[in-house]
């Protein structure tokens, strides 16, 4: 099923979008919730994004009621939470608490579709620390697809003119070709869930789920990082695995117990040669041991200066050697990286994440239909390489 365009979403007052959701009849509320989820599903959106686009807060009744403490108008999603007595945190002044949210989910089955979003809001409010490992730092792009997608690769023009952007008058303009393969992008399903019993639901406040949901959120992100790392290292089935180079090729001294932290000149020579080959490195990926090696490499040494620094203090010329392409190289943590290796690449043209449309919204449908409150967080993601020649594995043990 192809997705509808976002421009086709009609903005309507809040009461029209939530029509029937707060009905006194549980079955009516459940049907209204399923209808709302179904509308979001047509566009490949979760309920948070759909409500932001579909609700015209200014056209709603009592629009002044939907204002944030700073005076700004609430978004469609925030207005829906206020209307349904659902919080993003305990707000005792407004009488909206996490216990009241549990009551809302119990009496208004249609509102249970928003359960995953409310739990996520609780996590962000009570736990502001980010995960150590996040997939965003590994990606060039992330987009939503409605069906399977074929793998593709770039076939570069063999003209020598590729070395420059200048094209002589009347000559051929070099053009790279993007070719698709019959093989498809492999999708991974990441997720975990918590189901509460009826007695649990009646007797405890909703915020007791926060630490459990936080663990699920971290596990899901770790799973995505592992899948992305696997494609970066081993290829996507069409583009080959990243080639490996030993740091000793660049003059590293590994004798007498010396490791990566003792061989900064060799690391710099490797980065310079990568840039000279047309594949400059702006991102390195490694595990915690690799992070420690790099951290110790840059620990300060007091009282030692180079000959150039001593001469500059006495009037010698100061040559600025800052190269923008090599100045800001970011380290990304991945526990899935092999020991003793760094994956080095340019992040902007290497890895793309594909999110399968409706994989999240299906869990909202289940939440509405079930009699018990269930927190399920899943994502279906696939990863493909944009260019296959940007990655190099640096083995700092050989």
Automatic annotation (TrEMBL):
Residue ranges the record marks as coiled coil: 347-374
Q: What is this protein called?
A: Phage major capsid protein
Report if keyword Coiled coil is assigned: yes
What domain of life? Bacteria
- Keyword set, alphabetical order: Coiled coil
């Amino acid at each position: 099923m192809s997705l509808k365009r976002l421009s086709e979403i009609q903005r309507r007052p809040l009461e029209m979008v939530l029509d029937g959701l707060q009905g006194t009849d549980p079955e009516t509320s459940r049907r209204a919730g399923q209808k709302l989820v179904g509308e979001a599903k047509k566009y490949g959106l979760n309920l948070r994004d759909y409500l932001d686009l579909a609700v015209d807060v200014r056209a709603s009744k009592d629009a002044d009621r939907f204002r944030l403490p700073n005076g700004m108008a609430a978004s469609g999603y925030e207005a829906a939470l206020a209307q349904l007595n659902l919080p993003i945190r305990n707000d005792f002044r407004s009488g909206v608490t996490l216990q009241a949210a549990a009551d809302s989910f119990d009496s208004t089955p249609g509102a249970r579709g928003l359960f995953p979003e409310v739990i996520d809001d609780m996590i962000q409010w009570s736990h502001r620390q980010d995960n150590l490992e996040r997939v965003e730092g590994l990606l060039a792009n992330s987009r939503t697809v409605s069906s399977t997608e074929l793998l593709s690769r770039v076939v570069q023009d063999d003209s020598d003119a590729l070395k420059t952007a200048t094209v002589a008058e009347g000559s051929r303009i070099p053009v790279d070709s993007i070719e698709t393969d019959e093989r498809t992008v492999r999708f991974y399903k990441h997720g975990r869930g918590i189901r509460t019993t009826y007695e649990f639901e009646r007797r405890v406040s909703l915020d007791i789920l926060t630490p459990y949901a936080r663990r699920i959120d971290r596990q899901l992100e770790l799973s995505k990082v592992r899948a992305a790392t696997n494609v970066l290292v081993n290829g996507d089935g069409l583009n080959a695995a990243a080639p490996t180079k030993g740091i000793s090729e660049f003059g590293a001294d590994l004798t007498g117990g010396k490791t990566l932290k003792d061989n900064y000149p060799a690391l710099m020579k490797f980065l310079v040669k990568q840039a000279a080959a047309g594949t400059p490195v702006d991102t390195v990926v490694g595990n915690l041991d690799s992070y420690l090696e790099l951290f110790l490499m840059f620990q300060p040494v007091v009282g030692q200066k180079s000959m150039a620094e001593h001469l500059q203090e006495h009037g010698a010329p100061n040559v600025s050697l800052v190269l923008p392409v090599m100045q800001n190289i970011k380290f990304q943590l991945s526990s899935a990286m092999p020991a003793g290796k760094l994956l080095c690449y340019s992040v902007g043209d290497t890895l793309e994440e594909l999110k399968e449309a409706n994989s999240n919204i299906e869990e909202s449908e289940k939440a509405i239909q079930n009699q018990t409150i269930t927190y399920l967080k899943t994502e279906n993601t696939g990863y493909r390489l944009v260019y296959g020649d940007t990655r190099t594995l640096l083995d700092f043990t050989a």
